[in-house]
């Protein structure tokens, strides 16, 4: 059993209203020094050992991310 | 300017319908071997160099995660 993490983020040119809202709220609430906040999705998968990287890439591209507006990174982590 | 990543995940005892939906859909669509999918949030922050770890921990706990139902990890990454 392997653990796989997929991080999905809006592409840089895509607006990110959720991240923007956090970034705007922080100074009002006394936290200065945070210039940018971008919010994306974080998936943790448990997969059988025989699932290869090509399959993982396909799963990420097809089900976890929207390739039109999002970038994503797939990485295996130690269990 | 430092880059900080905060990953927020539902606690293990909390149901995760979004992750469940992905996990259930995969075998139907021809991808076997994925046993668990959990979905959380991934934040990328750019912060000034004088923002210390205690402040980052406070920001994550207060604004990015809901401590009642979520776990979170704060880490600095190389720019």
TrEMBL record, chains A, B:
Swiss-Prot/TrEMBL GO biological process terms: 'de novo' IMP biosynthetic process
Pathway: Purine metabolism; IMP biosynthesis via de novo pathway; 5-amino-1-(5-phospho-D-ribosyl)imidazole from N(2)-formyl-N(1)-(5-phospho-D-ribosyl)glycinamide: step 1/2
Keyword check for Nucleotide-binding: yes
GO MF term set: ATP binding; phosphoribosylformylglycinamidine synthase activity
InterPro entries from the UniProt entry: PurS (IPR003850), PurS-like_sf (IPR036604)
One CC-aspect GO term: cytoplasm
Enzyme Commission number, as recorded: 6.3.5.3
Catalytic activity entry: N(2)-formyl-N(1)-(5-phospho-beta-D-ribosyl)glycinamide + L-glutamine + ATP + H2O = 2-formamido-N(1)-(5-O-phospho-beta-D-ribosyl)acetamidine + L-glutamate + ADP + phosphate + H(+)
UniProt keyword list: ATP-binding, Cytoplasm, Ligase, Nucleotide-binding, Purine biosynthesis
Localisation: Cytoplasm
Task performed by this protein: Part of the phosphoribosylformylglycinamidine synthase complex involved in the purines biosynthetic pathway. Catalyzes the ATP-dependent conversion of formylglycinamide ribonucleotide (FGAR) and glutamine to yield formylglycinamidine ribonucleotide (FGAM) and glutamate. The FGAM synthase complex is composed of three subunits. PurQ produces an ammonia molecule by converting glutamine to glutamate. PurL transfers the ammonia molecule to FGAR to form FGAM in an ATP-dependent manner.
NCBIfam families membership: phosphoribosylformylglycinamidine synthase subunit PurS (TIGR00302), PRK05974.1 (NF004630)
Assigned protein family: Belongs to the PurS family.
Quaternary structure, from the entry: Part of the FGAM synthase complex composed of 1 PurL, 1 PurQ and 2 PurS subunits.
Record-given protein name: Phosphoribosylformylglycinamidine synthase subunit PurS
Organism per entry: Saccharothrix variisporea
């Amino acid at each position: 059993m392997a653990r796989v993490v997929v991080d999905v983020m809006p592409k840089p040119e895509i607006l990110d209203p959720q991240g923007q809202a956090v970034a705007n709220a922080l100074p009002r609430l006394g936290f200065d020094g945070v210039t940018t906040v971008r919010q994306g999705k974080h998936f943790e998968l448990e997969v059988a050992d025989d699932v290869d990287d090509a399959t993982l890439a396909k799963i990420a591209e097809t089900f976890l991310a929207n390739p039109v507006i999002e970038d994503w990174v797939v990485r295996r982590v130690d269990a």
